[in-house]
Specification:
- The complex is a heterodimer of chains A (384) and B (392).
- Chain A is 53% helix and 16% strand.
- Chain A has helices spanning 4-12, 15-42, 70-75, 107-113, 121-129, 138-144, 192-198, 219-229, 242-253, 256-285, 287-295, 300-331, 347-374, 377-383, and strands at 53-58, 66-67, 80-88, 102-105, 117-118, 133-137, 151-155, 168-179, 188-191, 205-206, 208-213, 237-241.
- In chain A, the strands form two sheets. In chain A, strands 1, 3, 4, 5, 6, 7, 8, 9, 11 and 12 form a ten-stranded mixed β-sheet that branches. A two-stranded antiparallel sheet of chain A has the order 2-10.
- The radius of gyration of chain A is 29 Å and the shape is elongated.
- Chain B is α+β, with helices and mostly antiparallel strands.
- Chain B has helices at residues 2-13, 19-51, 76-83, 127-130, 153-158, 196-202, 222-231, 242-286, 288-296, 301-331, 355-382, 385-390, and strands at residues 58-63, 74-75, 90-91, 94-95, 97-108, 115-123, 135-139, 148-152, 167-170, 173-182, 192-195, 208-209, 211-215, 237-241, 335-340, 345-350.
- In chain B, strands 1, 5, 6, 7, 8, 9, 10, 11, 13 and 14 form a ten-stranded mixed β-sheet that branches. Chain B has a two-stranded antiparallel sheet with strand order 2-12. A two-stranded antiparallel ribbon of chain B has the order 3-4.
- Chain B is elongated.
- Chain B starts with a helix and ends with a helix.
- Classes of the chains: A alpha+beta (384), B alpha+beta (392).
Chain lengths: 384, 392
């Protein structure tokens, strides 16, 4: 510990090199932070998927509807705690580029299914009282400047309303929901009964079902049981865990996560090379000093530790700064303005980042440190 | 000038002695260029497919209010009415227009085995005549009225079980693959085609379709054709040029990929510039005596600055070329598929490393080399001669 000031002085003896080495590390970890966040965004929040929730879709494809009558049959299965259905609306608010998901739900059941969503009780009450009521995620509400009480017109692309003008559906915004960190805060939820009564065609059909089971360890068995129930019917189902469902959907975008990992690897590897070279250079410049230290009685081990502490300190300071900057940038929100709802840096990512910093510091210091350790006093002094 | 050349040659000749440090600069810059070129080649590839789809003399008719083929719906009688509109090319009495269904079928991806939304198109007998670029490359055309299908070349490559002769089981229906087709690399090559009437039955769509694709007399008659249809009170449709419809679908993803690509490359290049500064700084520092000697001999500061800059530009060019080459060899033509969010379905495409991208990568590399070399070069020029020599 008492050698820390010594290490500190050494670090700042070569300001130019130290500053630029730090900058390289800062940029690398800024990139690391942003790339893992991007990876999270493209994996669509799979890390937050509930283990006890199963998703039932039509076996032929996601776009095929299922009959609403399945709800009662699902609820009757022992081991099912809760079941509800969702229906994709796919409407356009003002302009197609203003994309956000609109989903027709059963309000109470949906909120019970997703305790991650927080809606004030009075707003829920207002929603239950108003058939045309809808709630929006805080991110979407902020994006369009919506307030509770606003009337939101949305152009239906799939369904046209029986009444009203053309394709426009009108909703009353009765609530704005917040959610746990990382959970999608961009959705727009409205009541299924409003959709079903007012659409021309498609009555009694829903998009997909979500089922919460009592025992998550039995998910495979339960999934098979549901699919058997509806086998040989007009609408056969395919049941997966919510996690599996999101994962397979994320894979459809392409293997973005793998590409991100490759880029992170390239970046960190280049940085490792640079920091190693700088440390080698620095230690090489100090050969005679190290010899003096050894003459003064510093053991080989201690000399090695001094060098390692120096490189680890630089890695931690630079990396910490970089990751901190990345965290701040992520807090500022999704750069595309809503296309990536799960734009979040998870605690896990920070942990991995810290481990990487430590690893890089040790690796970059290893070669010069072992060099310093093996230095023979006589040789080193003579070289001078 | 002579001085400049002499000092530059001298410094370049001493490069091998500083191989490891210089190597790092080259690797760093090559890394940036690989990432930049590779990421942008994704956008290029996707754009090429989407913009290569459709023809200005074909009109796509959808229900008004639908934002894509997927959400459109047209009743059977309405499609008959549309086909009779003036302006459509006729073969004898038969208008060259195809009433189509566009749905998704859930099939496993070849690479991951996970399910993918593969687009499936039910077409009318005129479909092949409407799309002149269509041709069968393996097997034969499906027979109308049966459960036979033909598969686009891209789909056959990306999704499992679509080889000619195989059966696709989907729900209670099974489809038989009898041929593979191509359409000049357009989006259609990711699709599976079958008889629209068979598909209506399989997806319980009654007698309804989603779109009509019509071949017009010429691209110029489009406006007239469009006005005619949209003014018809019996119809409630929108009419778009087919090529414009597909080009419009590519903008969202292309923009996203470009933002991400430039963002990542921009930050990485910042790191690489700092790396280059470090490398060149160490190069200058290790040659301090040499540079001081040269200065003492009467070589001017300009020559020294130039030699450092030339070295850093040379390293950057090497890195840029290596990175471009790596991207070209590693990624050009790489077949993959992604989801087109407008239709919720897969599009197969290949990464495209274009000459423009390679040039851009090289320019980017040189820029990094220039910035990276400037600071150390000025340092070298300002080196106090006596102090540097005294270090001896």
């Amino acid at each position: 510990m008492k050698f820390l000031p010594f290490v500190w002085r050494n670090v700042w003896r070569r300001k130019f090199l130290t500053v630029f080495t730090l900058l390289v590390i800062v940029v690398s970890f800024l990139l690391y932070g942003l790339l893992v966040t991007l990876g999270n965004a493209f994996s669509l929040g799979v890390q937050l998927a509930g283990q006890d929730r199963l998703v039932l879709i039509h076996k032929v494809s996601l776009i095929q509807p299922l009959p609403v009558s399945y709800l009662g049959r699902l609820q009757a299965v022992p081991g099912v705690e809760l079941a509800t259905h969702n229906t994709w609306f796919g409407g356009v608010y003002q302009d197609p580029s203003n994309f956000f998901a609109q989903i027709a739900v059963e309000p109470e059941a949906y909120l019970a299914m997703y305790p991650e969503i927080h809606l004030p009780p009075d707003q829920l009450k207002a929603w239950l009282a108003d058939r045309q009521g809808a709630i929006a995620g805080a991110d979407t509400a902020r994006r369009f400047g919506w307030k509770v009480g606003d009337r939101i017109p949305i152009q239906g692309t799939i369904w046209r309303p029986k009444s009203g003008t053309g394709d426009t559906w009108e909703f009353n915004l009765v609530g704005i929901y917040d959610a746990e960190p990382g959970f999608d805060r961009t959705n727009f939820f409205f009541r299924y009964d409003y959709l079903d009564e007012n659409r021309t065609g498609g009555a009694g059909l829903v998009g997909w079902y979500i089922v919460r089971i009592a025992d998550p360890s039995r998910s495979t068995e339960m999934a098979a049981r549901f699919d058997d129930m509806f086998a040989n019917s007009q609408a056969e189902t395919k049941t997966t865990t919510e996690k599996g469902f999101i994962e397979s959907f994320a894979k459809q975008i392409g293997d973005i996560a793998t590409i991100m990992m490759w880029i992170v690897t390239v970046v960190l590897f280049s940085m490792l090379l640079i920091v190693t070279i700088v440390m080698m250079y620095v230690i090489n410049q100090r050969t005679s000093e190290l010899a003096v230290l050894k003459t003064l009685g510093f053991t080989n081990g201690r000399v090695m530790v001094l060098v390692l502490v120096e490189s680890v300190a630089i890695a931690l300071v630079g990396g910490g700064l970089g990751l901190g900057l990345a965290w701040l940038a992520v807090q500022a929100g999704d750069p595309t303005g809503g296309m990536m709802p799960t734009w979040v840096m998870l605690p896990k990512d920070v942990g991995v980042g810290l481990a990487l910093m430590l690893g890089l510091g040790l690796l970059a210091g290893a070669l010069p440190a072992s060099h310093a350790m093996r230095l023979r006093i006589v040789d080193a002094l003579r070289r001078n | 000038m002579k001085q400049v050349i002499a000092v530059t040659l001298l410094s370049l000749r001493s490069l091998p002695r500083r191989l490891s440090a210089s190597g790092v600069a080259v690797v760093g810059i090559a890394g940036v260029v690989v990432v930049l070129v590779a990421v942008l080649s994704i956008a290029e590839g996707f754009r090429a497919v989407m913009q290569g789809t459709g023809s200005p003399d074909r009109a796509l008719i959808m229900r008004s209010g639908a934002d894509s083929e997927m959400t459109s719906g047209l009743a059977g009688p309405m499609t008959e009415l549309i086909k009779q509109a003036p302006g459509i090319v006729r073969d004898g009495q038969r208008p060259l227009a195809s009433a189509e269904l566009f749905v998704i079928i859930d099939l496993p991806k070849r690479s991951t085995g996970t399910s993918a939304n593969v687009p499936m198109r039910g077409v009318g007998p005129e479909a092949a005549e409407v799309r002149q670029e269509f041709s069968i490359v393996e097997g034969r055309m499906f027979t109308f009225g049966t459960n036979e299908v033909i598969v686009g070349r891209g789909a056959a490559g990306q999704f499992a079980g679509l080889d000619v002769g195989s059966e696709i089981r989907s729900g209670q229906v099974s489809w038989r693959v009898v041929g593979t087709f191509e359409t000049d690399g357009s989006v259609s090559e990711t699709e599976i085609w079958c008889d629209a009437r068979t598909l209506q039955g399989a997806y319980r769509r009654g007698n309804s379709y989603q779109t009509v694709l019509a071949r017009l007399d010429s691209p110029e008659t489009f406006q007239q054709f469009k006005d005619e249809l949209t003014a018809d009170p019996q119809l409630n449709v929108q009419v778009r040029r087919e090529d414009e419809y597909y080009a419009g679908q590519s903008t969202q993803l292309t923009t996203l990929v470009r933002i991400v690509g430039f963002g990542i490359a921009g930050l990485m290049s910042l790191g690489a510039i700092f790396g280059a500064i470090l490398t060149m700084y160490m190069a200058v520092a290790s040659r301090a005596r040499e540079i001081a000697t040269l200065r003492a001999l009467g070589f001017n500061a300009f020559a020294v600055v130039t030699s450092v800059l030339v070295e850093s530009l040379g390293l950057a060019a090497l890195g840029g070329a290596a990175g471009g080459l790596l991207a070209l060899v590693g990624f050009n033509g790489y077949q993959t598929s992604t989801i087109n969010f407008q239709t919720f379905s897969q599009v197969a495409f290949a990464f495209r490393v274009t000459p423009q991208l390679l040039v851009m990568g090289l320019v980017f590399a040189l820029f990094m080399g220039l910035i990276g070399g400037l600071l150390p070069a000025l340092r070298a020029a300002r080196l106090p001669i006596s102090a540097a020599l005294r270090q001896l």
